[in-house]
Amino acid sequence: MHRTYTDNPDHDYGPTRTQQRRDALAVLELAQQLVELPPSRLAKLDLPEDVLREIANTRKITSHIARKRQLGFLAKTMRKHDTEVFDGVRAALGENRERQRQETAAMHRLEATRDRLLADEESALPELIAAYPQLDRQHLRSLLRQARLEREKNKPPRAYREIFQLLKDLAATGEDE
Questions:
Q1: What domains, with CATH codes, occur in the chain?
Q2: Is the pTM of this model over 0.85?
Q3: At residue 7, does pLDDT exceed 70?
Q4: CB under 8 Å to 138, separation ≥6 — which residues?
């Protein structure tokens, strides 16, 4: 079957083949993300019954090629539904990704604070005390001393981890208030 083209500028030819391929790949990527989601998160999403059934079938398959083929079938099943059905799912997955990114950034900031405390306690500690007045200074100083000794003697970094946990707890209580 071939298209007949007109010179009418108002005539809509629909999406190009390239755009159709991009759309199909986007649905395939969404299908992959849905299969990788834990069942608890998947249950919270509003998905059609046939899509949920195909996701369950895809999870059962362990063979690489068979799984890839089943993912393609899942994507085909998803394309049969309107795109509006999956807009909420995409938004929820995007929010989840953004939340994970923020949590990772917060952990990196805590690690940097811990390393700064170990490297230059005299300047970093007053800043931390100003930010968190409820901080147990004496306990933190003893942990810092222990962490330095552990590092010098090549012992497991128990105090190093405890400092991180202390900073993490401080940050959590600071957010709650």
A1: 18-81 (1.10.60.30), 102-176 (1.10.60.30)
A2: no
A3: no
A4: none
